[in-house]
């Protein structure tokens, strides 16, 4: 969890495509922004109390501004619509300091970066960092067509432009990525990084595994997942608050805690970001998040209260 917020303003707003807006965010008081590592994201505190996460896509070596690219999602829960309709140049807002759940591995061999659609955003920052470090990499931008793709001119002008490859499913002629061919002959110390729609990510990761990549060399970041939050009711004891509540079949732990006045900071509400993680003191969670690794879930000492439930009748949380 990160409670630190920064006051920024929208210094520049550009509609990169019909449904992707690119925002440059500068500190409102002219001070320097905190440094960040490639793969990091920030929380945007949006009008109406919404908090949403977006990957930083600017060069980590340049902290004069943070850049984010945001797709207007037709299935939006309000976040992307608020960005597109309410944030203009000069708009003031609060953001979190950067958090990184998708870091580059130190050292190693060649890095293969796969960005599907708006999932290209963290890959741009990674490409900048790898270029600065003199490390070998390829950046593969997979999208429907050039008309649906942001950042093309920026990538064409980048100092690593010779390492950028575009793949368009609906171009004429189509040029979809052949991931198996791209990974053929990759060294044993190479790594794959992927971000984008779930189906795209699953395809890239499965192909990487079939190409001989060990799980530890395949890195991914989900930005949207389908998660089932319902189930049988159970009791939650909020140890630090001295309160207890019954979590109903159709509500989350966070919602139940909210009914008794315990507010849990949340962002994604899909078990992706880790913002709402709480320590488990007793009981066994029914983990439904994508944030923790299988090994971390097996320890049963942390729970994502936005989506996970209980395998025991009672959970005691340190909250």
From TrEMBL:
Presence of the UniProt keyword Membrane in the record: no
Pfam family, one: Fer2
Any one Gene Ontology molecular-function term assigned to this protein's record: oxidoreductase activity
CDD domains attached to this UniProt entry: fer2 (cd00207), PDR_like (cd06185)
Lineage: superkingdom: Bacteria
Chain ranges of the 2Fe-2S ferredoxin-type domain: 223-319
Keyword Iron-sulfur among record annotations: yes
Cross-referenced SUPFAM superfamilies: 2Fe-2S ferredoxin-like, Ferredoxin reductase-like, C-terminal NADP-linked domain, Riboflavin synthase domain-like
Gene3D superfamilies: 3.10.20.30, Nucleotide-binding domain of ferredoxin-NADP reductase (FNR) module (3.40.50.80), Translation factors (2.40.30.10)
PROSITE patterns: 2FE2S_FER_1, 2FE2S_FER_2, FAD_FR
Domain FAD-binding FR-type: start-end pairs: 3-105
UniProt keyword list: 2Fe-2S, Flavoprotein, Iron, Iron-sulfur, Metal-binding, Oxidoreductase
Protein known as: Oxidoreductase
Organism of origin: Corticibacter populi
């Amino acid at each position: 969890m990160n409670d630190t917020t920064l006051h920024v303003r929208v210094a520049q707003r550009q509609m990169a495509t019909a449904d992707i807006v690119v925002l440059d965010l500068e500190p409102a008081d002219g001070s320097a922004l905190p440094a960040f590592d490639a793969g990091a994201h920030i929380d945007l505190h949006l009008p109406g109390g919404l908090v949403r996460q977006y990957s930083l896509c600017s060069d980590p070596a340049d902290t004069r501004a943070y850049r984010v690219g945001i797709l207007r999602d037709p299935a939006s829960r309000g976040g992307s619509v608020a960005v597109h309709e309410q944030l203009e140049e000069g708009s003031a807002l609060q953001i979190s300091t950067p958090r990184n759940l998708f870091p580059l591995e130190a050292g190693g061999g060649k890095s293969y970066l796969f960005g599907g659609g708006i999932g290209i955003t963290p890959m741009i920052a990674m490409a900048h960092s790898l270029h600065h470090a003199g490390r070998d990499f390829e950046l593969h931008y997979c999208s429907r067509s050039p008309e649906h793709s942001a950042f093309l001119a920026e990538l064409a002008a980048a100092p690593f432009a010779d390492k950028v490859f575009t793949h368009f499913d609906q171009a004429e002629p189509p040029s979809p990525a052949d991931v198996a061919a791209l990974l053929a002959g990759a060294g044993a110390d190479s790594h794959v990084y992927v971000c984008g729609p779930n189906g795209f990510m699953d395809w890239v990761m499965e192909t990487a595994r079939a190409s001989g990549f060990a799980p530890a060399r395949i890195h991914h970041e989900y930005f949207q997942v389908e998660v089932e939050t319902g189930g049988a009711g159970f009791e939650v004891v909020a140890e630090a608050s001295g309160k207890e509540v019954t979590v109903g079949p159709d509500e989350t732990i966070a919602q139940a805690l909210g009914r008794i006045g315990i507010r849990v900071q949340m962002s994604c509400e899909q078990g992706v970001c880790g913002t709402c993680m709480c320590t488990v003191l007793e009981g066994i969670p029914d983990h439904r998040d994508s944030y923790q690794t299988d090994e971390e879930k097996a320890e049963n000492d942390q729970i994502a209260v936005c989506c996970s439930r209980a395998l025991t009748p009672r959970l005691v949380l340190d909250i």
